[in-house]
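hey can u check if this looks right to u? its 326 residues, i copy pasted from the old doc so theres a chance i mangled smth
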Amino acid sequence: MHIMNKKIACGILLLAALVAPFGLYPVFLMKILCFALFASAFNLLAGYIGLLSFGHAAFFGWAAYVAGHALKVWGVPTEIGLVLGTATGALIGLLMGLLAIRRQGIYFTMITLALAQMLYFVCLQAPFTGGEDGLQGIPRGKLLGVIDLGNDLTLYYVVLALAAFGFALIVRTIHSPFGQILKAIKENEPRAISLGYDVNRYKLLAFVLSAALTGLAGSAKALVLGFATLTDVHWSMSGLVVLMTLVGGLGTIVGPIVGAVIIIVLENKLGDIGNWLAAVTHVEWFSTLGDSVTIVTGFIFIVCVLAFRRGIVGEVLAWNGRRKFS
């Protein structure tokens, strides 16, 4: 019965995603899908193996740059550009993981942050990134040489398919024997070692998979928006994905998606929300909310940390579990 409910919920979400672009701006929805995949890929590492990376912006930003450069300068087909971006994320993840996974806790986090900042300064100086101006005018091209992605609605369904593939891969990984070993490492690493598992190898595989999916999200984002900038590879982007995951629910499947939706909506629509509140309440202060998005997101983060320590989805699941057993 529980499995049936999950299938029904997934069906409803998929149906909602299919009809959403007919009522909402497709580019805005595509941005949400890209960041939802980004947050889910980060959650695979932080939520299910306990490795808090502060360097995921490196995979996201470098994938966006490489995919964009390949599409704009090399003129490769769109699908090849996405593959190159994803492979870039995986390769950087492999190199970074080899250096970082032997450390734990704050030391692991600081190593990933330091390596990511090194790559940020490479992007700042490298000629192919455009430096502070960024890489502009990335063409969408045609998928398989046939499907014109210049149409927002067409591109939306392509991005939806990519995001659905990424989510499905994450879910399959979590529920596979490999995923169970990752959970065991998180819960009791010495015990996993005593059972004969090569813990560092499993950590590295999870790190590379997370980096590859992050690269796919970054490549898709560059394709959707048509540009890649230093913001994509800056440490603040790593902080943003941590915020999304914690707000939604670390270690839950749906939580990062919910967190991504909340944060992206606030970043892009907070001005509209503030104007609506000002019109309803006749309080002019609300109309200035659009200029204070970081204050509002910070406030939400503080509330979630203090009142919803499991994140929004985590608290809902915990409440539902208590209700069933009460």
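DSSP finds 13 helices and two strands in the chain.
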